[in-house]
């Protein structure tokens, strides 16, 4: 199939060609960015929390007198621990997918000049790392001597802490983090152990690269660590245990208010946390389907119109020896050239659209490999859309075509 006759024919229909090419360009730009956003949301939903989610529940109490914090902690731990099926209860400030309990900028020097990021902080009493199911990859778990009472400044002057492998790489790329120190204000942290994973409490697009920048600070329960509890139970019993815990808390802690939104199993908290992401992904899939459908209809309509217009030319070509395959390839080639023009413009539009999304919605840069994927989809869509009209054109008998005007 020679390209020149096709190009000559397209020049005679410049407006129609331009309009369908622009439609394809818009589809290409939206398709690449929408698929990129869907991939980002799916990746977020696969976030590894680093804890034994299926065995854990979280309880948050509010409205109690801070002066009665020690008494409240004692009553809740004793009362919840007595529920059949409960393996352990620990005071903790938050859990993955739970309320954000603290995020602090950290530096490698006390003067605050070597800034390294904003990790989230977990505070927990003795036994909490083990109850969470954290996997130690270097160093040791905090010992009894590492747990300190939290002062009014929120942190002791110096703490021996656990950090995630991701945060250790961020702070000391390629170095052994054990024994190294970092700072937040006047508070010094010394790394005694490294865990494989522990996600932040509130993951978002802005914190995507730091989704596992977390620090576990050993702490004793008290006025600044009270009212939030980690419950561990057999996964098969966890839902029943959490229902029983909510009922029991009305008697155990009548002086506090249970936050029903935050008090749930970790699988339920994860499900609720990513509900918006699932909705967004579904909406984007619908947008993509609608856009591709409209684009395909545009191609079908234009091709059908051109087939009707060219019946006489098709008949003449058939009469002088053109086969059905020749006619079919002609329309497929014509469509390929139009789609290619649209894709070329669409790739530029894709980067422009991505730049706008980066500016206003903090999205990352669109990777280049999304462009050929989008191009393949649109080429395939174009060939499928034009196939019906092209087959009808190829099936026109030469005699009928030459008699039509």
TrEMBL record:
Domain ABC3 transporter permease C-terminal: 287-397
Membrane topology: Multi-pass membrane protein
Chain ranges of the MacB-like periplasmic core domain: 30-243
Entry-linked PANTHER family: ABC TRANSPORTER PERMEASE YTRF, MEMBRANE COMPONENT OF TRANSPORTER-RELATED
Name under which the protein is recorded: ABC transporter permease
Organism placement in taxonomy: Bacteria, Pseudomonadati, Pseudomonadota, Gammaproteobacteria, Lysobacterales
TM spans (from-to): 279-308, 336-357, 369-387
Subcellular location: Cell membrane
Family membership noted in the UniProt record: Belongs to the ABC-4 integral membrane protein family.
Keywords assigned: Cell membrane, Membrane, Transmembrane, Transmembrane helix
Pfam family, one: FtsX
